[in-house]
Amino acid sequence: MSVGRTLFAATLAGTLALAVSPASSQTLRYANQGDLKSLDPYTLNESTTHAHLGHVYQGLTARDKDLKIIPALAESWETPEPTRWRFHLRKGVKFHNGDPFTADDVVFSADRVRKKGSNMQTRLAPDVKVVKVDDYTVDFVLPSPNPILHNAWDVWYIMDKKWAEENNVVDPTPVAATTPSYASLHENGTGPFIIESHQPGVKTVFKANPNYWGKVEGNLKEIIFTPISSDATRVAALLSGEVDVIEPVPIQDISRVDSSPNAQVLKGPELRTIFIGFDQMRDELLYSNIKGKNPFKDIKVREAFYKAIDIELIKTRVMRGLATPSALMIAPELFILSKEFTRPKFDPDGAKKLLTEAGYPEGFEVTMDCPNDRYVNDAAICQAVVGMLARIGVKINLLAQPKAQYFAKVLKQGGYQTSFYMLGWTPSTMDSHNVLFDIMGCRDDAKSSRGEANLGGYCNKEFDAITDKVLVETDTAKRNQLIKQAYEIGNKDWSYIPLHQQALAWGVSKKVNLPQRADNLVMFHWATKKE
């Protein structure tokens, strides 16, 4: 055996020693390229984190396998008037520590999710009043109608007011926090699983909740989650049977997994859009050799960057066909008029000319922030972008980091410390308003949650005015036309560079039946495992 293979085997053995314990057929062992850094459900608005915590926490609503909104901690709801939603809470539900679930917990969670430090502030607008009617009824009073108020509430998880107060976690834990809070390391939800132990970066063990109020479709009694960042180690663990599910499967290993006797790849379209953004707010970029001005404030520079990127090459070479190039910041499945938009053609000569016209004939230098353990081939996509922009004279200094460090740097609590970045976004409402408001809306850190995930500070007031109309418009045809107008403005501004919707790729043991959802939330309470 070569030295390289010896080291690989040692690394694999060491990693799996952390993941594996004696397991029955009802124990599912799961590995992801990223980690579960915090158990505080308001720390990070990120789908993998939502999926993990969705086994222990629950919202007033949930989504079924087809992403339809269904009751969860709320049994039913109605709108007795256009600006008032009334939610009737489920009785007899207890948190994992035995505390009863009541309206007080909903009111508390509504306050907490909107506090400074929360990365989930857009789940509930600051001007919505949350009123306890009685112990099992809560009203949400709005300043104006909102037909999609509850569309994103399946991952607005309700917390125990009493538990939070007793453990000094009334305030949410910021993603950039250097010291973990009690809520970061412990949970107290109402869901079908309880976290027995949590070692960030090492292992998290979930046990079935014996007192769960609902019915569980699956047969799992235990889930053992281990982060395995190495693609090769993660695939080897699946093929050897040491783990039952991995996410994602590297594109280059899909055929290998599919041809194995004991595992397969679940593939399907995903709703997440991968895109590139620019700092368009600062007068001088934080990470560039251009001093005294910001090149990205020039629309010609943004257009040049867009046209310099060969999206078909990324699709064929980097993603090996498992991507759908996008002309919009939303998946076509989520906007019926998306077919009316066409992506501009790759034009490096035109891009070079635009840079010259903008005053950068020799290009310039800028740092690109990129996660390297979050999306399918994320680092490889960024590397490809580096090479493409080099052809027009732009030198990209690539800073690719694990998602924990990446998000701590670029999100709101990190101070939006980025000049040029790649990000992925699945609209939590499954609706364009989420994209128009969260990602593309003018950022107002002091007064509103608008633009909370707008890392680069793109801003167009006309765009925002249309977005506000989208929120309250109840006529579907009129609403779609408003959404179309907003996207047209964003595209005309070259506000972002949408790349593609990537494909889902989960590696699953043939002993496991695991339904797949297009939002990439892995829901193990639906899973069954056989001997």
Automatic annotation (TrEMBL):
<keyword id="KW-0732">Signal</keyword>
<dbReference type="Pfam" id="PF00496">
    <property type="entry name" value="SBP_bac_5"/>
</dbReference>
<feature type="domain" description="Solute-binding protein family 5">
    <location>
        <begin position="68"/>
        <end position="444"/>
    </location>
</feature>
<dbReference type="GO" id="GO:1904680">
    <property type="term" value="F:peptide transmembrane transporter activity"/>
</dbReference>
<keyword id="KW-0813">Transport</keyword>
<dbReference type="GO" id="GO:0030288">
    <property type="term" value="C:outer membrane-bounded periplasmic space"/>
</dbReference>
<dbReference type="GO" id="GO:0043190">
    <property type="term" value="C:ATP-binding cassette (ABC) transporter complex"/>
</dbReference>
<dbReference type="GO" id="GO:0015833">
    <property type="term" value="P:peptide transport"/>
</dbReference>
<comment type="similarity">
    <text>Belongs to the bacterial solute-binding protein 5 family.</text>
</comment>
<feature type="signal peptide">
    <location>
        <begin position="1"/>
        <end position="25"/>
    </location>
</feature>
<dbReference type="InterPro" id="IPR030678">
    <property type="entry name" value="Peptide/Ni-bd"/>
</dbReference>
<dbReference type="InterPro" id="IPR039424">
    <property type="entry name" value="SBP_5"/>
</dbReference>
<protein>
    <submittedName>
        <fullName>ABC transporter substrate-binding protein</fullName>
    </submittedName>
</protein>
<dbReference type="InterPro" id="IPR000914">
    <property type="entry name" value="SBP_5_dom"/>
</dbReference>
